[in-house]
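Quick one, probably user error.
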């Protein structure tokens, strides 16, 4: 089995209005140290948790649940809600950036974009020790990113209203350079030359600011999938991990034609807008197919890897629940339609 790690970004919101509160630093000081790492995030209302590298979903589940429980307890004690959602319901004042030299550089680079940049993601690191194997895997996952996004979209609200999208975080991220589908790379030398040129050109301030929906980590020997919104529940987060790891593991045996980046970008837009009702480009044929058919195609491709890791039953059952009950975005919409902010607050608290 291949090791993986999960980074989850959470945001602390005032419990009655669901607008961001600058409690990230207090949360980091108060949360007990344990397995995994609690870290600073870009906004003062955010906190990030990173698991240790693990081999199994059960090991990841133990770490994620423990952190979520501790963060939820802190939030309740401070009149707040700690959310696993790609965007907060309400924005309130302009975004407040955490103090650090790098975040200051990034904020200067973003300019006015930073004021509305309230986004929370889940980043999955899948370990591949060989440089060229990581590049091949990155190329292979490109065309499948819309399928993953369509089943995991979880940011329907912003500015106190329904955005009409399943992943408004994806729409916000499109304002940045290098978002969405990465280019197709010949080899590691091509990848390095490309990102180095972008830094030299001042398109991005540093290598850590590469924001493609999938990239090669600059810190670890991993393929990093950044397509996912922050997730409502631990089990939702684990589905991202199961599907993403299996997809990377399947890359060596996957004969997928090189899809045009614009076609993948169009499918990413459709997935962010329509979720499970999206029409996407078939990674193999290039034809347009419904998202639910694309999910079946993905499962055919990654079933051997899911079987080898022991994750097949979990992934299949959780996907069935999503196909029946809806994505996180749909569950948020249903909760708000039924009971307004109190209903949404109860769902976000879990």
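Nope, works fine. Designed sequence:
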């Amino acid at each position: 089995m291949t090791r993986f790690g999960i980074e989850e970004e959470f945001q602390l919101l005032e419990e009655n209005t669901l607008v961001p509160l600058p409690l990230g630093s207090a949360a980091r000081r108060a949360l007990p140290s344990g397995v995994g790492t609690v870290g600073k995030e870009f906004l003062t209302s955010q906190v990030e948790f990173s698991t240790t590298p693990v081999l199994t979903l059960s090991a990841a589940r133990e770490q994620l649940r423990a952190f979520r429980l501790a963060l939820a307890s802190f939030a309740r004690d401070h009149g707040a809600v700690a959310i696993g959602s790609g965007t907060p319901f309400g924005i309130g004042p302009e975004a407040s950036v955490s103090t650090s030299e790098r975040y200051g550089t990034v904020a200067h680079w973003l300019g006015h974009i930073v004021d509305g940049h309230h986004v929370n993601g889940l980043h999955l690191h899948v370990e591949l020790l060989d440089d060229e194997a990581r590049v091949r895997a990155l190329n292979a996952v490109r065309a499948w990113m819309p399928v993953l996004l369509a089943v995991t979209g979880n940011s329907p609200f912003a500015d106190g209203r329904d955005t009409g999208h399943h992943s408004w975080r994806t729409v916000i991220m499109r304002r940045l350079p290098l978002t969405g589908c990465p280019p197709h790379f010949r080899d590691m030398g091509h990848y390095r030359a490309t990102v180095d040129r972008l830094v030299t050109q001042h398109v991005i301030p540093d290598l850590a600011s590469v924001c493609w929906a999938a990239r090669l980590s600059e810190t670890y020997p991993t393929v990093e999938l950044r397509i996912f919104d922050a997730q409502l529940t631990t089990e939702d987060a684990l589905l991202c991990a199961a599907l993403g790891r299996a997809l990377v593991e399947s890359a060596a045996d996957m004969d997928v034609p090189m899809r045009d980046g614009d076609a993948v970008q169009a499918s990413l837009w459709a997935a962010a807008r329509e979720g499970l009702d999206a029409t996407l480009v078939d990674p193999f044929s290039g034809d347009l197919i419904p998202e639910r058919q694309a999910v079946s195609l993905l499962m055919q491709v990654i079933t051997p890897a899911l079987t080898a890791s022991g994750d097949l039953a979990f992934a299949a059952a959780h996907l069935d629940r999503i196909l029946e009950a809806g994505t996180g975005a749909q569950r948020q919409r249903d909760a708000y339609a039924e009971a307004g902010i109190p209903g949404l607050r109860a769902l976000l608290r879990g």
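The two ends are 31 Å apart (CA to CA).
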